[in-house]
Design goal:
Elements lengths: L3 E4 L5 H10 L4 E4 L10 E4 L4 H10 L3 H9 L4 E4 L1 H6 E5 L12 E6 L10 E6 L1 H7 L4 E6 L4 E5 L4 E7 L15 H6 L2 E8 L2 E4 L10 H26 L1
Parallel strand pairs: 1-2, 1-3, 3-4, 4-12, 5-6
Antiparallel strand pairs: 6-9, 7-8, 10-11, 11-12
The structure holds glutamine.
Glutamine binds next to helix 4.
EC number: 3.5.1.2
InterPro entries: Class_I_gatase-like, PdxT/SNO, PdxT/SNO_CS
Organism: Cucurbita maxima
Length: 236
């Protein structure tokens, strides 16, 4: 079973490693660019994306993370990790925030409000249930969570979350994103684009391992197809 890297600069990396362990898979902490050479796939956990970005910059991790994504290696971003993977981030205090990018979407930081507006919601995720079985819904834990406002044509939407009309929503002073919030009754909270998976919520904070299992299968498929492409190149 290949080793999964978990970016361990800040945030809920221990919880991801514990979830992987429950599935019999070894997760290793990644803090330096060269450590990415030893792992086949990567999880970028939730936490605080501006702090995580500052630490990633300090450790010179951005070029290696971008190369990891560009090479088509499987990467899953949860919450702040989703923000890291997005091509564009809007919302409060996003100015100048460095992103890894690769995921063709626009994400809005702190979309649902502050820490006090954190919540849990039962999400309908047909793709997860058809692959992993189990209950019809997944309990999403949203902590100062982002939401995805726009996706490109290659992005598969896996889950939406309803937006309550009376929720007190955070916004940047420019009002950016406000229109989308008031006119939408649901927003995108989970997507997949080829080797990239992203969730606005925290599966690692629940005892339901289906997202981790889904990512491991996805990683296995991506690795298998790149191995067969390499074999084709050698054969021809
Ligand atoms: N709001 C946080 C950010 O912008 C993300 C929250 C989380 O990862 N739980 O980085």
């Amino acid at each position: 079973m290949p080793i999964v890297g978990v970016l361990a600069l800040q945030g809920s990396f221990n919880e991801h490693i514990a979830a992987l362990r429950r599935l019999g898979v070894k997760g290793v902490e990644i803090r330096k660019p060269e450590q990415l050479l030893n792992v086949a796939s990567l999880i970028i956990p939730g936490g605080e994306s501006t702090t995580m970005a500052k630490l990633a910059d300090l450790h010179n991790l951005f070029p290696a993370l971008r190369e990891f994504v560009r090479m088509g290696k499987p990467v899953w971003g949860t919450c702040a990790g989703l923000i890291f993977l997005a091509n564009k981030a809007t919302g409060q205090k996003t100015g100048g925030q460095e992103l890894v990018g690769g995921l063709d979407c626009t994400v809005h930081r702190n979309f649902f409000g502050s820490q006090l507006q954190s919540f849990e919601a039962e999400l309908s995720i047909p793709e997860l249930v058809s692959t992993e079985g189990g209950p019809e819904t997944f309990r999403g834990v949203f902590i100062r969570a982002p939401a995805i406002l726009e996706v490109g044509p290659d992005v598969q939407v896996l889950a939406h979350c309803p937006v309550s009309s009376n929720s007190s929503l955070d916004s940047d002073s420019s009002g950016e994103g406000k229109e989308e919030k008031s006119s939408e009754s649901k927003v995108i909270v989970a997507v997949r684009q080829g080797n990239l998976l992203a969730t606005a919520f925290h599966p690692e904070l629940t005892s339901d391992n289906r997202w981790h299992s889904y990512f491991l299968k996805m990683a296995g498929d991506v690795e298998e197809s790149s191995a067969s492409t390499a074999a084709d190149i050698v054969d021809n």
